User: Fold this.
Amino acid sequence: MNPNRPDARRPVITGLGFITPIGNDRAAVAASLREGRHGLAPVEFFGNPNLAVKLAGTVKDFDVSSTNSRDWTWPARYTIPRETLRGLAPHGVFALCAIEQALQEAGLDLGAVAHEPGTGLFCASAGSARLLHHHLGQLDAARGERGNPMGVLSSISGTLNFNLGAHFHITGAVCGFVSACASSSHALGYACDEIRLGRLRRVIVVGAEEHNAETILPFAAMRALSGQSDPALASCPFDVARSGFVGAGGAVALIIEAADLAQERGALVLAEVAGWGQSADGHSVAMSHPEGAGLRLAMQRALADAGATPAEVDYVNAHATSTPVGDRAEALALRAVFAQAGARPRIGSTKGLTGHPLSMAGAMEAAFCTLALAEGFIPGNAHLCNVDPVCEGLDLPRESVALAPRVVLNNSSGFGGSNVCHVLRRWAG
Assistant:
């Protein structure tokens, strides 16, 4: 614990919600992480079998593929009012369900967060490219004379903030974060700062994305996506044969609370967010700094904020997406922070199982780290066969390890060189 931080304001995690390629609840996700079960499935975008993209990390038991929300289906355990549904994007459905799960695990009913001035909502998504394209197409066809009145609210990047803030009646604060694949990590970091500063007592953090053609295929033009049809070859972070990432969708929510609030109401604390750090590469609009300089600085800042040393870290959930350039840069950054200090934490990328869900990756993997701390295991590196020599000195277990970590580090990086890292610690009261 950082000695300068008041105990009452220590941010802790009390609830998790999962709608992911590897499971739609905590038990299923934990089992997939332990057993190395991936959630990648064949896709044929636009009905075109000639496209190079063959796989995606898909969400099961939901059908939100139509541009008309009246056609959508979701598991019967969730109730979404019609007036809420009208403004939602497809990934908004995922997010709403993930938040309901997280609130339930935290022991909070809707009345506990509605109109409660100490509760905020921080969201991350890129918006719905599918609905934006659809609504603009309708506007264009009508020569500007007709448009969907909910078109803007259901499609632009703030769609989660607008709709979920209203649905859950959040009055403390509602804010959205858009920093590409670091977005939900930024949301989590700033949520923790609001709690430390005493401005808020509780923050719901959610990241969500869609796994349709409009969200994923644009990355093919950047040559960032894998063209493999075999899941074992398509998403293989740190492997010498990696060729690009596999796009994915879903939503993950975390309930972050001040420690004293959680203790006062008898909540089960799953983990403490002990510190975080961020940096910018200042290098390229799309590619990571070749030596991982920015990510190295973000890791060092996160450790310093948490009052932790490299030797104390037991597990690192790497951002590694399975791209040649990005994984190499992160490996070099990890070597600089840990190997050069004589530290050897277990390191892994869970994107071998999930694919890369873009802006929701940071929240999803922070939740995975929380499961590792709460349930006492370390996820392995699925599909890692031949380790890239650049990873020399790093401990990259292939399978999950039955070791209860005490301190874990979660990395995220995004376009433009945004780097965000969180240090999570097992809760000791």
About this structure: The two ends are 11 Å apart (CA to CA). Residues 7-425 form a domain with the Peroxisomal Thiolase; Chain A, domain 1 fold (CATH 3.40.47.10). The chain has a mean pLDDT of 96. The CA atoms of residues 239 and 384 lie 5 Å apart.
